Amino acid sequence: MNKSYFNPLAPMDKEDLIRTLELAPHVEGGYFRQTKKASDTINLAGKGRALYTSIYFLLEETNPSHFHRLTADEIWYFHAGSPLTVHMITADGHYEVVTLGLDISKGQQLHYCVPKGTIWGSTVDKDYALVSCLVAPGFEFEDFELFERVDLLATYLEHKEMIERLTRS
């Protein structure tokens, strides 16, 4: 049975979304805008931190999210576009993937939590994907580590193909 669903974002292309959502280039790749920073704080390592932060994040086929690591969990919520693949190197060195998208009959996830300490990046196979990301405790750039190719290859040579795809140098 072929069902048709209303998608209010369908008429918008990625340039429309970048402009309308006021997205800016992100250092790890893609485009983003912080949409919420909790006014409530927690004490973390002697510093007051926002309880959570949230962003819009748009990735393109030619502009992936490069391998990085956070010190907090990050939950991704899929909104529109092509399926997005999250590529992860776990703490024990295993490579895992999760696909976010709207086709749950094909195993795509509507949302996914990337555990803190995971090395990860994301790709889109066609055009773009629009997601929201929530980080708790709230994101701070001091908690963000963007990886260099040589460093990852020294430890995870068995994942060479993906490391070369998701690092800049």
From TrEMBL:
Recorded superkingdom: Bacteria
Organism: Streptococcus pseudopneumoniae
Name the record gives this protein: Cupin
SUPFAM superfamilies according to UniProt: RmlC-like cupins (SSF51182)
Every DUF985 domain range: 16-147
Alphabetized InterPro entries for the sequence: Cupin_DUF985, RmlC-like_jellyroll, RmlC_Cupin_sf, YML079W-like
Pfam families in alphabetical order: Cupin_5 (PF06172)
